[in-house]
Amino acid sequence: MSRTPSPTAQDFVPFATAALDFHRALNLPAGPLVTSRAELDALHAHLVSLHGLLDAHTLRTGQLVPAVGDPLRATRTRIWQAAEHVHGAYHAAPRPDSGEVPEPEACHAGLPEGAPELTICQRHQRTAHLVRRRTTPADLHAPFTGLVRR
Length: 150
Fold this sequence. Notes:
The protein has helices at residues 13-27, 37-64, 66-92, 104-109, 118-134, 137-141. The chain contains 6 helices and no strands. By secondary structure, it is mainly alpha-helical. The longest helix is centred in the middle third of the chain and has 28 residues, at 37-64. The chain is 65% helix and 0% strand.
């Protein structure tokens, strides 16, 4: 089993990074702006996808080189925490049809808002299931999520 990827493997991560930079430059003007629910949904999808990529790297690399796997595991946890916050921001953002901001109690109750708004919750729940299998509650709430091996 090889420990390094094939040199012919196509690396799309730099393209994803460039696309995010391009999106920010084109779509986020200077000055105050309320982030739309659609933007938060797209950011959540991106974070969940990044979490999946880091999860795959963590599982494979952690078995071969624990000193590399530990920081990847910590990064995966932090990305999940970021996705949690974006999910919360989505539910606190103004609704597109009415502009009303939901009451905090409605968000905490976890009431689904129906399609298409429910899509972010379904994605979040699928990933949360994976997170619960691979991460302890202590890891999720620790101020520092990684071990330091030397």
